[in-house]
Amino acid sequence: MVTIALVQGNITEQHVDAIVNAANSSLLGGGGVDGAIHRAGGPEILAACRALRASHYGKGLPTGKAVATTAGRLPARWVIHTVGPRFTHDEDRSELLASCYRESLRAADELGARTVAFPAISTGIYGWPIDDGARIAVETVREARTSVEEVRFVLFDQRAYEAFAAQVR
User: Fold this and answer.
1) DSSP assignment letter at 142
2) Which of 35, 120, 140, 151 has the fewest beta carbons under 10 Å from its own?
C-alpha cells in the first residue's frame, strides 16, 4: 500500500525518485508547475522533451497520458510529464484527470521509482476545482496497483494543502 504524504512547498525542491510535471501537450515548457520544472531542471529536460516530440510524440502528449525524461538539475532522478484535462462544466473529464495519476504511477513503476512527488494536476490554469481535484488524486493513488512506496503531494498554497488534507484523513 502506498504511503501518502503532503507537503506545502515547491515541487522542484523535492528529493524523490520522480517528480510529476503537470505539462502541456507540447512538452516544451509553459507556465505554472511546467515552467518551474523546466526552469529549475535546466536545458536537459527541454532537450529530452524535444527528442520525444521528434520521435513518438510528434503531435504532442495526449491528455491523460504520461512519459518520463531525465530530471536534469533537479534533485530527482526523473520527471514524469502528464497532461491534465482542462475543467469544463459541459463535459465530465474526471476519468482523464484520474488517468494522469494512474499513468504517472505506471511510468514510475517502469522506471523503478519508489518515491514520487505530484502537484495538484489541472487545478491551476486548467481550472479544475481544488476540492474535486484533491478527491480524484487521492482516490486514484489509493486504488492504484503500483510498486511506488510513497506518493508525496506537493501543494503550492495553504488552500490546496487543506483540500488534500481533507481527503487523506
Assistant:
1) H
2) 35
Q: What is the pLDDT along the chain (169 residues), one digit of tens a residue?
A: 899 999 999 999 999 999 999 999 999 988 889 999 999 999 999 999 999 999 989 999 999 999 999 999 999 999 999 999 999 999 999 999 999 999 999 999 999 999 999 999 999 999 999 999 999 999 999 999 999 999 999 999 999 999 999 999 8
Amino acid at 19: I
Q: Do 104 and 23 contact (CB within 8 A), yes or no?
A: no
CB 50 within 8 A of CB 28: yes
Which is the catalytic residue, given 17, 34, 92, 131?
34
Please tell me the CATH code under which domain 3-168 is placed.
Answer: 3.40.220.10
Task: Dig out the grid coordinates for 88 from the structure.
Answer: 469544463
Amino acid at position 35, single letter: G
Residues 6+ apart with CB under 8 A from 55: none
* 101, 121 contact by CB (below 8 A): yes
Handedness of CA 30, 83, 52, 37 (dihedral sign): positive
- Helix, strand or coil, per DSSP, at residue 53: helix
